[in-house]
Write a structure and sequence with these properties.
By secondary structure, the chain is mainly β. The protein has no helices and eleven strands. The mean pLDDT is about 95.
């Protein structure tokens, strides 16, 4: 069982930056691939970025590639999402998620993730 708690959301102006963090419980954090997703009102969950358990492989959605960076610190059981050049369309609730057996691989598939945080709101004003 993994519990995830996101933090770092808030209100930011377009063009600005924000860093989201996700703290995970448990002693086997490195065995989980981690992902960030978001959901805007009336829309489906959207994959943003993922990183494998080793921290050596990452994947990004085209919509955020070059603007967002995912990283993890297995010693601290945390995963972060550094977001830059934010746009109004980035406004959404952001979730981190953990996928069992993800030490070597990453996945952009929402259904592949086993544990989810409660989400943190990011609002980008234009």
């Amino acid at each position: 069982q993994v519990q995830l708690v996101e933090s770092g959301g808030g209100l930011v102006q377009a063009g600005g930056s924000l860093r989201l963090s996700c703290a995970a419980s448990g002693r086997t954090f490195s065995t989980y691939a981690m992902g960030w997703f978001r959901q805007a009102p009336g829309k489906e969950h959207e994959f943003l970025a993922a990183i494998n358990g080793r921290g050596l492989s990452t994947a990004y959605a085209n919509s955020v590639k070059g603007r967002f960076t995912i990283s993890r610190d297995n010693a601290k059981n945390t995963v972060s999402l550094q977001m830059g050049s934010l746009k109004s369309e980035d406004t959404a609730v952001y979730y981190c998620a953990a996928r069992s057996g993800g030490y070597y691989s990453v996945s952009s598939d929402y259904t592949a993730y086993d544990y989810w945080g409660q989400g943190t709101q990011v609002t980008v004003s234009s």
